[in-house]
Amino acid sequence: MNQQATTTDELTFTRPHGEQEKQILTAEAVEFLTELVTRFTPKRNKLLAARIQQQQDIDDGKLPDFISETASIREGDWKIRGIPDDLQDRRVEITGPVERKMVINALNANVKVFMADFEDSLAPEWSKVIDGQINLRDAVNGTISYTNEAGKIYQLKPDPALLICRVRGLHLPEKHVTWRGEAIPGSLFDFALYFFHNYKALLAKGSGPYFYLPKTQAWQEAAWWSEVFSYAEDRFNLPRGTIKATLLIETLPAVFQMDEILHALRDHIVGLNCGRWDYIFSYIKTLKNHPDRVLPDRQVVTMDKPFLSAYSRLLIKTCHKRGAFAMGGMAAFIPSKDAERNNQVLNKVKADKALEANNGHDGTWIAHPGLADTAMTVFNEALGENQNQLFVTRDEDAPITAEQLLAPCEGDRTEEGMRANIRVAVQYIEAWISGIWPDGRCGNG
Fold first, then answer.
1. Would you tell me which CATH number, out of the four given (2.40.160.60, 1.20.1250.20, 3.20.20.360, 3.40.50.300), belongs to the domain 6-413?
2. What is the pTM of this model?
3. Where are the domains of the chain?
4. Using a CB cutoff of 8 Å and minimum separation of 24, what contacts does 231-235 make?
5. 3-class SS at 358?
6. pLDDT per residue over 281-328, tens digit each?
């Protein structure tokens, strides 16, 4: 095989185009990707520079807070453009990487939505990224199948879950493609190729190109995504608002800008999601220079703790006021083959999901099909005949303050807890560099 780099206009592909690549990196698809990279990378780089400056300010003692200059947006009377019919019921969503067998199993699970993930749960080896695009294309077309070594055939059931694609965050590069000597944004690579290859088929069956956006830190980043989406719609003569997105609130700075984020993306956004585990990580990372805000051992930092409860309740109140969904967070537990251990897992999941449903979340996340029935039962009981809980306004809640969002919870900080953190970090990195889906292996629950 020819190992020479492939250059197309201003993009340079450092890997050769084999048969798999030729299915995805067509001339038309690469042309569209090139347009997006050329038009939107410079501003993306400025947004990343703004993150660095914001963190420096926090390190110097300035705590995150609501933005006084955007108070008119928070206090204004406005709503998002709207939510398509096939996105109205999202009571249970399953997440996982874009590997072929996992895509089929997730779409066949007892869930409403499958979030196909090019981000946290996918080690971005070139072959995995390309194969992931092929797998999602085949899933959209209903032709995806997989045969294992024993000859077992996996195929889609007649009524699979709805597909949403999570692209990589703004900070993550696609190192196998460069533009003017730098790696292009992985977010644009994932978005451009999934959108280009699937929007026609999705629209033809009454759905649409739907996305999850991770790791946002500021409303300006949401505005950048709105520009990307609008450009794509105009480029292919699609009505404004054809592309829909759910954005994860999983960084500490973003929790203070939820109204602004919804407003910036109002033509395209349908909801926000409590990305709890990354939010806890972001809290630790963002406040690393503030010794009075050190969290206890990770197993006691649960969603019933005051600062996380405030985060969940504020997200619900903000979203529902604007006509957007408020999605609950991840149950990253994995079912056990040991009956007693599995019972404990399911009871933890049930309690966790009941808390979310009672707070007013419209749906929740799981990472394994074996948890689907438990999560579905909880939300079926909470929703009754309703498709969602947009009617839960939480208007009676007292205003949530910055200090409530920033106050650490009580709990022990132990050597055992530190050892567990180190073990999880090492296991995660080992899984990542081995190209294995890391989340479930590493106790991220």
1. 3.20.20.360
2. 0.94
3. 6-413, 415-445
4. 231/35, 231/36, 231/39, 231/40, 232/32, 232/36, 232/191, 232/192, 232/195, 235/32, 235/35
5. helix
6. 999 999 999 999 999 999 899 999 999 999 999 999 999 999 999 999
